[in-house]
Structures are given as structure tokens and as C-alpha cells.
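Schema walkthrough. Field components (list of strings):
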Amino acid sequence: MKLLKITGLALVAFGATVFLFLVYQLWGTDLIAARSQAVAEEDLSFRFQEVRGSITLPPVTTIPSDDPPVGTIPQFDLYGEPAPPDGDAFGRIVIDEIGVDDVMFEGVDRETLKKGPGHMPWTPLPGQPGNAVISGHRTTYGRPFYDLNALAVGDTISVETALGEHVYTVRESLIVLPTDVWVTEPRTGAWLTLTTCHPQFSAKQRLVIFAELTSGPNFAYVEAAIAITSDQAA
Amino acid sequence: MNRAARLVIWVVVVLVALAILWFFVFPWAEGLLDSGGTIG
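Field assembly_structure (string):
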């Protein structure tokens, strides 16, 4: 009889623990992320001010995507910015179609991703040539990429860094395994790759969005570089 | 075993169980639910 009572109490305690854990994961973690985002707003302003005071900023005008350079290829400048320290806020991602407006952080370790979307440090920063990879939570810690599956080809993603605003256009979305590291490999041109867990409430797979730079401080340079590469290949 | 000794044992058992949950089980379960979407 005593054993039955202890077993019963243990089961009740287990059930209560699981319930509280799920409540914390699905709602409590949102509070942690919201607080981190609020603090990061100030950090981001400070970084923008600091970096903009130390680098050559690009002109405000950009070449639209439907007017690529033709004929002779002029020399365009490539604008860069210093890599942010691990865990620091460095930019903002805005996706109007799915209501995303979050500060991004450098790094994809567990603690950094609790604050918001994180940039894989071994890939270029958004706005630079190559493949910039950003990962984010799907169902916990503010769930920044909860509706990422709703993005369609042609939708735009805006990323603001100290250099200015970089606009990307969605080209492809696909489901891969967490071990499919090829999605993070360098690409010709300038790309933004967003990754998150799939399906919702499971980390079994990854939802990946590939978006191409279509406007921004380095757009002219990237277009010219692609044209030169194409000419050399022909 | 007197009542005080039993109480101490129970407290230790509960604390050890909570530590295991906090440091091992919860992080593992959190990763199952949403690992942050990282690749590799």
C-alpha cells in the first residue's frame, strides 16, 4: 500500500513537471526573448553609431534589380563592416509578410539564439557577397521564424546593418535534414539563407529559405562581379 | 531511522532529481521541441 502511494505521488510529480516545462517552453521563454530584444535595441543603436563613425559609408542610391549593368562593367566599390563580437546585436531583420521585426545577434549557440535570430559566424555578414546564414527558433524564445513556411517566392526580406538596408528576394524554400550543411556553403552572388526547425514543435528537420540580394549598398558590386564571372565562363 | 534522518534523505533525493532535470533532461527536451534551427 505504501509503495502504491509513493508510485502515485511520483507519477503526479512527473506529470506536473512535464506540464510546467511545456508551459515554460511555449510561453515563459517568450518573456526571456522579449526582454533580450528590448535590451538589444539600445545595443544595436550603439553599434550602428560606433561602426558608422569608423567606416566609409556607401552612397544612399542603389541600382534597382531590373536594371543590371550591361556592356562594359564599371568598377564598383565593395563596402564592408567589422565583424561583431560573439553574442552581440549587429542588425535587424524585417519580414513584413510574416510580421518579423527582430534584432539579430552574432552566433548560433544555445544562449545566443535565446535572444533572437543568430548569424552563423563562419558565413559572411548579411549584405556581403556569398551566403549569409541566419538561424532562429520556430516555437520557443519569441518564435521569430514561426511562420517562415508562409514565405513565397518573390517575397522580400529586409536586413539592416551598420552599412544600411539590404533587401533580399525569396527564390526558394525547402525542407532538409539538420545535417545538410550544404545549405550553408558559399554561393555566387549575395544570398541570405534562413534556417529554422521543421515541422513546428519538432527539431526533426529544417525549413530553409534562400533569398537573393536585390537591393542595397553592395548590390551594384555583386551584379558586376556576377557579370564578370559569366563573361569569363563564356 | 528517526524522522529527521528520513526527512534529510528525502530532501537530498529531491534536490538530486531537480539537478538532473535542470542540467540534463530539460536541455535535452528543449532541443527536441525546438533546437533553434541550426544546421550541422
